[in-house]
Design a protein that fits this description.
The complex is a heterodimer of chains A (536) and B (316). Chain A is of the alpha+beta class. Chain A has helices at 12-28, 56-62, 119-129, 173-177, 242-250, 264-273, 302-311, 314-320, 344-348, 356-369, 388-402, 418-423, 441-448, 463-473, 478-495; strands spanning 36-41, 70-72, 84-86, 89-95, 100-105, 151-158, 161-166, 204-210, 214-219, 233-238, 278-292, 326-327, 378-385, 406-413, 429-435, 500-510, 514-515, 533-534. The model of chain A is unreliable at 1-25 (pLDDT under 50). In chain B, helix 1 runs antiparallel to helix 14 (281-309), helix 6 (96-124) runs antiparallel to helix 7 (129-143) and helix 13 runs antiparallel to helix 14 (281-309). Chains A and B meet through strand 10, helix 5 and helix 12 of A and helix 2, helix 3, helix 8 and helix 13 of B.
Chain lengths: 536, 316
């Protein structure tokens, strides 16, 4: 019963086979009903409102409470257009040359408070998150407003039909709707209330949330999917201390880890201590990157930007900082986890991925051309959040920069002020982590790279790249789109828009009696728990 | 004596007012506020949304106005609403107080049960192998960080027994055995440091007293060792020990952060740190005031105990 999916380089196929076998195994064993799952949680969620947050700390415990129109199949490890399944939507169809997406909704679905679910709830939710002028409410925070920029209008022709009319074709739109970040909210409950309670249509109801202790979910007996969920409940136990969390898992006080919490070292120790523990190795869809302030000299000079990117040896980074628990990639999640990642050949030609000696020599040459050298060293500050993981990253970067003659010093920024500082552009180089909600070019590029976007902290702005991003976004032919996306990734790395150091790997651990909890390549979308069952 | 108590209570009130000003100002001097942190978790900052939220939480009002509003509410028993959870601060704080008080009391019990006898043995067997051993024991207790000790206990339990106490708080009324086990190990971890301190103070105080004339007289009169040590020496050596115990209790109420975190106990101390990290002003201010009140009152209690223990002490 080994479901340990090992992903060594060049063993992508093997990995996929293991995942397929594990999924098939899960599907052929008769599920059992009942039992409560004790799931790990690392902290209190900032709020319970998924639409107002951008952290797994909210998605992980709150996804079981809600449903989307569509969702990535929880039993398939790799999310893509092909794995999207209906939840509140029975079926859907693209119309008008890809500018309209019409959904036929399930009938007989009820909110946890007994009110019927209709198309009005869908219209309310997505008008709310896109900040539509006709929206009847407003979110306190709206981190994914940009996802819905192409929506012109949402029409609810009848209680069970809803149509999204787009300004232009956007094939990724369905991917965005399938993310764990896109639940449907009840129109009859004020959005502010959903920060502290949950009224959804999902397989589990919120029973109790005791801050600092636990979030308890119970089975929704009126769930619209017959014989689901299997579990009687889920208890998300909040344990702040990482060592205690692992000990609790080992001692059987917890049944599963939380996504994004498993490091390679911890997984190896756990496996040694409890050989029967099941470890899933997959991606978090979070990358470690360097923010280069394009508006601040000397980074207005493309030679300096390129020198910085060339100086940092990505493979050494993975080994030294992540102890091998990460993979090198460009701006989209690399293979085998990601769908859009560059091929190994393409990656090898990018700054920081080639021979480190040659690349460092090239970096020194570029710096010399820009007027910097031993007599006139480039002095810069690398800013990062005052969190160990970030500081480790920044320290490595500083060491690499010193090797090409850049005299870099570390600035640790109080965590609370980090994004405010980035938004104001008060940094030269920043060591940062960026999570991508869905493994999709639109979700990533529009959030992080187009001119003036909300998280484009580097203030990178290349109208030509923007045009390419718009072009890929409306390309219906997947092969053509893949080529365009690959080209954009190469351009972003060559321009040094936000040099990617690595993509973090997640090591999810669970006891063998937990079934059908299949980690996906993005941590944000698989916590519905509808199919999960336990056999203690 | 009553005059003394009234005067001390007056001073305590003044101390608390001063404390309220200090904590209020310090919190606002710390970089960032709840609005920054809310946006930090969302991973972006929108200046317009930030401005709206700052206004909504009344954080754009002058600091004096904010202080007066908080102090006014506090005097009326209103602890305000937690910025982070949107719940009344008292609703969050109240269930945590018994957890911390129980843990602090048990830790203090451990420290007394271990620290006093070992301190006496150390003093009466001065410079013997037993004394050296106990001095090593107490030095280790003062040197080992509670965090490390707690983690070692957890790891040993899981390694040796494949078991650790419950990660969810179990009230005594629900399961007394589980409750006891849940508090036993953290009490040992937190109590060890206090025990070491009590041991050191008892030892030095006893050594001093054992050299007094009246102790020598006791021995010369032919009193039993038990009578000399416990009835005459220990009673007079207890004064500094009581002082330490009083301050230790106050320290434990606010200083159990690490122990509560490692053993995942939902106590006040752990929550206070989280509230500080989130700049949850109403919660932090009110918790600090509660802890300050405990410190002030335990100091008063220690002062009053002096008279009971030492008849030479008179309250003017």
């Amino acid at each position: 019963m080994v479901r340990h999916a090992s992903a060594r380089r060049g063993l992508g196929t093997l990995l996929i086979c293991v995942l397929v076998v594990s999924s098939a195994w899960a599907a052929t064993t008769a599920p059992k009903t009942g039992g409560v799952l004790n799931a790990m949680h690392r902290e209190d969620p900032p709020s319970l409102s998924i639409h107002e947050e951008a952290t797994i700390s909210t998605n992980w415990p709150m996804m079981p409470c809600y449903n989307n129109l569509v969702l990535f199949n929880p039993l398939r490890g790799q999310e893509s257009q092909a794995t999207i399944t209906g939840e509140l939507a029975e079926r859907w169809a693209w119309q008008d040359g890809g500018t309209s997406l019409a959904f036929t909704l399930r009938k007989g679905v009820r909110w946890h408070d007994g009110r019927p679910f209709t198309s009005a709830d869908v219209k309310y939710t997505f008008d709310l998150v896109r900040g539509a002028p006709e929206a009847t409410a407003q979110l306190r925070l709206n981190p994914r407003k940009g996802w819905y920029a192409q929506v012109q209008v949402i029409e609810a022709a009848d209680p069970y039909t809803v149509t999204f009319r787009l300004k232009r074709p956007q094939p990724s739109f369905l991917m965005l709707l399938a993310s764990g970040y896109s639940p449907v909210y009840p129109a009859h409950i004020p959005a502010a209330e959903l920060r502290t309670r949950c009224v959804g249509t999902g397989p589990f109801k919120l029973k109790e949330y005791r801050p600092g202790e636990f979030i308890e979910m119970v089975r929704n007996p009126d769930y619209f999917v017959r014989d689901r969920p299997y579990l009687d409940g889920i208890r998300f136990i909040i344990i702040k201390e990482r060592g205690t969390r692992i000990a609790a898992l080992q001692a059987g006080r917890l049944d599963v880890t939380m996504p994004q919490e498993g490091t390679k070292t911890a997984a190896e120790q756990l496996k040694r201590a409890v050989p029967k523990m099941v470890i899933f190795e997959t991606s978090t869809n979070i990358n470690d990157n360097i923010l280069v302030n394009f508006k601040r000299p000397p980074f207005t000079d493309s030679r300096v930007r390129r020198a910085v990117s060339l100086a940092i040896d990505r493979r050494s980074y993975v080994q030294a900082v992540r102890q091998g628990g990460a993979v090198v990639g460009a701006s989209m999640l690399p293979r085998p986890w990601g769908v859009w990642g560059l091929s190994p050949e393409d990656l090898a030609g990018l700054p920081g991925s080639g021979d480190p000696v040659t690349q460092k020599a090239e970096a020194r040459q570029l710096l010399a051309e820009a007027g910097y050298g031993p007599d006139h060293p480039l002095r810069i500050v690398v800013s990062t959040r005052a969190i160990a993981l970030y500081v480790d990253m920044a320290t490595f970067v500083i060491d690499q920069l010193k090797q090409v003659g850049i005299d870099a010093t570390l600035e640790q920024v109080e965590s609370a002020l980090w994004y405010a500082k980035l938004t104001r552009g008060e940094f030269e180089l920043g060591a940062n982590l960026t999570g991508i909600g869905v493994d999709d070019p639109d979700a990533n590029f529009y959030e992080n790279y187009v001119c003036g976007s909300s998280r484009n902290y580097s203030q990178y702005c290349n109208p030509e790249v923007d045009r390419m991003i718009d072009a890929q976004s409306q390309t219906l032919d997947q092969v053509k789109r893949r080529h365009l996306v690959a080209e954009i990734q190469r351009r972003l790395e060559i321009d040094g828009a936000r040099p990617i150091l690595a993509w973090d790997t997640d090591y999810s651990a669970m006891w063998p009696f937990v079934h059908n909890l299949i980690p996906h390549q993005s941590v944000y979308s698989y916590a519905r728990f509808q199919e999960v069952w336990v056999d203690r | 004596m009553w005059t003394f108590i009234v005067r001390r209570l007056g001073l305590a009130a003044l101390t608390l007012v001063g404390m309220s000003v200090v904590i209020f100002v310090l919190l606002r001097v710390a970089p960032g506020n709840i609005v920054d942190l809310i946006f930090q978790s969302a991973g972006y900052v929108d200046p317009a949304e930030k401005h709206r939220l700052t206004h909504e939480l009344l954080l754009d009002r002058p600091i004096v106005a904010q202080y007066l509003q908080w102090a006014g509410r506090l005097l009326h028993g209103d602890l305000g609403t937690s910025y982070r959870y949107g719940l009344p601060a008292w609703q969050i704080v109240r269930p945590r107080i018994p957890v911390t008080v129980e843990l602090a009391t048990l830790a203090l019990l451990v420290s007394l049960c271990v620290g006093l006898p070992t301190g006496i043995v150390s003093a009466t067997r001065h410079n013997t192998a037993a004394d050296y051993g106990l001095r090593l024991f107490s030095l280790a207790g003062l040197s080992l960080p509670a965090f490390w000790l707690g983690m070692v206990i957890i790891l040993l339990l899981v390694r040796v027994f494949g078991w650790i106490p419950s990660m969810l708080y179990v009230p005594a009324a629900v399961d007394l055995r589980a409750h006891f086990l849940q508090f036993l190990f953290p009490a040992l971890a937190a109590g060890y440091r206090s025990a070491a301190l009590v041991n050191r103070i008892t030892r030095s105080s006893m050594l001093e007293v054992l050299r007094e004339d009246y102790v020598r007289t006791g021995w010369a009169k032919g009193l039993t060792g038990r009578a000399v040590i416990y009835r005459h020496a220990l009673k007079n050596a207890l004064l500094p020990v009581v002082t330490v115990i009083g301050t230790e209790f106050a320290f434990l109420i606010g200083g159990l952060v690490v122990t509560e975190t490692v053993f995942n106990l939902p106590g006040v101390a752990r929550y206070l740190v989280e509230a500080i990290l989130w700049r949850d002003y109403p919660v932090v201010q009110n918790l600090v005031m509660i802890i300050a009140a405990v410190v002030v009152l335990s100091n008063l209690a220690v002062d009053l105990l002096y008279a009971r223990l030492d008849p030479r002490v008179r309250y003017a």
